[in-house]
Design goal:
Structural class: alpha/beta
Strand order of the largest sheet: 6-2-1-7-8-10-9
CATH topology of the largest domain: Rossmann fold
CATH superfamily of the largest domain: Vaccinia Virus protein VP39
Oligomer: single chain
Helix content: 40-55%
Distance between the termini: 61 Å
Length: 281
């Protein structure tokens, strides 16, 4: 018989798990997240026959248990995302940045990084914008753009690579016109992003606490709605290293509620009306 009871964490167990999660994933859980941890770890505790969170932490600290550690990261990662979230970054990309890049470097190859891409809506939204720009703007017909999309969760990346979404996901910000133009029906109320749009995107696992050296340099970085989960110190470190990946004058988009804070000296603010984008100094 399956035990549906949620294991109760002691305060010390919660603090131990919170500290370990911060070390391996950078996620900074608040004091009010104890029940969230209990709920999300329930299935893993049962699957690996752990009687407590302390036992689970001990298990995943062992070097041979990388898969269990990744399971924990996957369930504790928030994957809340929408198509064309906040609208203005994509409008600015389409009407200002892509034409500008194309004019500055005719026939050039441009690179965009979607950090913390979750289930793929952000990079696929970019790919749709690029496709629209190619069709609608004669000045950018030879635009060659590569999108690198990264996320901490290996499970969510596997979903993103397939580019298949159900009705609930499709309804979160995608118009019928774009659905009909860029997706192919798969039956059972599912749709898949067309192959040519998927091929523009390279999905890779990446922990934002780790080195970005393998990614190369970028013209544009989207790091949206993820910094809110990190400490002030880690935010500054991530923003400083993102600045290092940007080409001179490259652009950074943050979430609508996020700011540069201690890294503000590295960027100039550019008003999109509405919204802002940050240009690397």
């Amino acid at each position: 018989m399956v035990n549906n009871t949620i294991a109760q964490l002691s305060i010390s167990e919660f603090h131990e798990f919170r500290e370990y999660l911060r070390q391996i994933a950078g996620i900074d859980l608040g004091d009010n997240k104890k029940y969230l941890v209990e709920t999300r770890l329930k299935k893993i505790l049962s699957e690996h026959k752990c009687s407590s969170t302390a036992q689970l932490v001990s298990l995943i600290k062992q070097p041979t248990n990388g898969k269990v550690r990744q399971q924990v990261i996957d369930v504790m990662t928030t994957n809340e995302t929408f198509w064309f979230r906040d609208v203005y970054p994509y409008d600015y990309l389409k009407h200002t940045l892509l034409p500008q890049l194309s004019q500055d470097q005719p026939g050039g190859r441009f690179r965009i990084w979607s950090a913390a891409c979750s289930s793929g809506q952000e990079p696929y939204s970019m790919s749709m914008i690029i496709e629209e720009c190619l069709k609608e703007n004669n000045s950018v017909r030879n635009l060659n753009v590569e999108i690198i999309a990264t996320d901490l969760s290996s499970e969510i990346l596997q979903q993103a690579k397939q580019g298949i979404y159900d009705r609930l996901s499709i309804n979160r910000g995608l118009s019928n016109d774009r659905l009909n133009s860029f997706f192919e029906p798969q039956g059972d109320e599912q749709w898949q992003m067309k192959r040519n749009l998927r091929q523009r995107i390279n999905f890779r696992p990446l922990n934002l606490q780790e080195s970005y050296a393998s990614l190369g340099r970028f013209d544009i970085v989207f790091c949206r709605n993820v910094l809110i989960y990190f400490s002030a110190e880690l935010k500054k470190d991530i923003l400083t290293r993102i600045h290092g990946t940007l080409k001179p004058g490259g652009y950074l988009f943050l979430g609508a509620s996020e700011t540069l804070a201690a890294a503000s000296d590295l960027f100039d603010m550019v008003h999109c009306n509405p919204g802002v984008v940050y240009k690397a100094k």
